[in-house]
Amino acid sequence: MSWRALSVFSGNELDVALRMNAAGVEAYCPSFTSVTRQRNAHRCMTVTKTRPLFRGYLFARIDDGFRVEPFERSTCKIVVYRRRPLSDAQIEAVRATAFLVSSVSDRTKINPGSFVELCRGVLAGERAEVLRIKGQRAVIELLGSRAVLRVDISDLETVSRATSEEIRVAI
User: Fold this and answer.
1) What is the DSSP string of 12-54?
2) Complete DSSP assignment for 129-161
3) How far apart are CA 164 and CA 143, in angstroms?
4) Using alpha carbons only, what angle is made at residue 109 by residues 52 and 132, rounded to the nearest 5 degrees?
5) What are the CA-CA distances from residue 80 to residues 4, 6, 42, 53, 67 (Å)?
6) DSSP3 helix / strand / coil % (the chain, rounded to 5)
């Protein structure tokens, strides 16, 4: 049995992976969680959705005689690339990438007024308050000093509310 990429109708990736796993076929659909804000006439809501990393594709450990008929409503075909299956190392690389994407999507929770910790660079470990965000950059004020810096959002991690309250008391 070897890993193959399956092409499915877009939007059905997670459902097909669940059905395949229930049928005893090892399937993997790399995904991440996205958080968006939606407004309607009365209020603003935060919506959390699980989305596939590769729209229209999933991976399955199947043998050469695998038939897609049990899953044909949503499965189009088995993707063939140079007639070779995917290796376990390639699937592990996809899993690692999916983990990195999900950790980056957690950084979208950084808003003006939130407390963060720098995770890279000379100031790694320093804590700061976010003043404003423009694109992929944030303007922060280091706690305990009046220094104002502009840094990439990817260099920041959110700090829990309890920790940020402890920081304010310490100042």
Assistant:
1) -HHHHHHHHHHTT-EEE--EEEEEEEEE-SS-EEEEEEEEESS
2) EEEEEETTEEEEEETTS--EEEEEGGGEEE--H
3) 10
4) 135
5) 8, 9, 50, 20, 14
6) 30, 40, 35
Using one digit for the tens of pLDDT, what is the confidence trace for 111-141? Answer: 888 888 888 788 888 899 999 888 778 899 9
pLDDT tens per residue across span 141-165: 998 788 888 888 878 888 765 444 5
**Would you state the pLDDT for residue 167?**
47
Cα angle: 148, vertex 100, 114; to 5 degrees: 30
Identify the burial level of 4 via C-beta atoms within 10 angstroms of its C-beta, where 0-12 means exposed, 13-18 middle and 19 or more buried.
buried
Element (H, E) at 170: helix 161-170
* Structure tokens that stand for 96 in this block: 């690692």
- Judged against a pLDDT cut of 60, whether residue 105 lies above it is answered with no
Q: What is the Cα–Cα distance from 53 to 109, expressed in whole angstroms?
A: 19
